[in-house]
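seq as requested:
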Amino acid sequence: MAAPAIPFKPRNRPPTSARQAFPLQGGLQGMFERAQALLAEPFKGLTTDGNAIPGLYSIHKTGVSTQPLVDAAEAYLAALSSAQRERACFAVDSDEWRKWSNIHPWLMRHGQGLVDLSDSQREAALGLLRATLSASGFELARNIMRLNEYIGELTGGKWEEYGEWYYWMSLFGTPSTVEPWGWQIDGHHLIVNCFVLGDQITITPAFMGSEPVSADTGKWAGIRVFQDEEAKGYAVMASFTADQKAKATIGMKLPFDGTIAAFKDNLVVPNEGVNYKDMAPGQQAKLVSLLETYVARMRPGHAEVWLEQIKKHLPHTYFSWIGECNEVDPFYYRVVSPVIMIEFDHQPGVALDNDEPSRHHTHTIIRTPNGNDYGKDLLRLHYETHPHHMKS
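struct tokens:
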């Protein structure tokens, strides 16, 4: 189905820089201060009641090699100058992991900006993204970056705010098939945090969004993102009976910027909505198909390992909804499991002038609750058997 034409105009407001730090004022200053306060809290992870469920994660062999990720990371590092490598590299247990932001203004970026790299260096950086994600996941990430340039076109060339290469790459630790390490890409509407330990990987928090979700004109005309995430989430809700819809609906006003986005690492997210066990078989199949859509962003092999873990916890998985349930209105949904949280929401305009949410601005995020975002529980378990590597 063709994407609907965008009915909104560019918002008339002063530009804010995406490329470099600038004096924060008003709402951005308040956001920064709230972020600093939340980041000062020791990491605990998302939970449903304030207490992480123990024993969910373990160090084990998956049988899926991470050598391609190591090779890609080493190629990226080799492509950088010494000064660029210094900007790009952090300790594996660095606090910089948590300092990401899905908004376009410069709030607390770190790492090496792709905008300041040569074409060959950018290709090396993208090689790491390509090695970590599936072909479809990589294409989604690249299309988000391309649409970030398209919004620059729509807004009359606000290139200080929007562009294809306003993304920052960081490496944590030393790439290895044995020791823990990881990498992060951070920028407007695209954040992936990949932690690697042996042949295990996690890719959360993973934030992917876009305003708009399609390009009708210009260099990237024909691109569209998040059709499946939107359609399959709606399909779950639409399949419910009236009683199930009432139980799934936890509100009518869509939350701004969702609930589990940047700086919400320790949020309590209760089990709400309809439990998997209370769904009919066809409804259960729709929920699993929705989960598969998100998991399929990860590279083959590891995606299957991840999905197998998620399926073990389906009896404790909940689906909830905010908003109307029809084929035109914006909506929000959330899937909560002991080992994955997924959030999808339609947002009001930022670059465009709609003050109410629309289907032209979409956010999605995947989290690993109960302590394993950023692979932190795996790193904790590693430190228990390798205490000499711990922070002093």
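Residues 59-389 form one domain.
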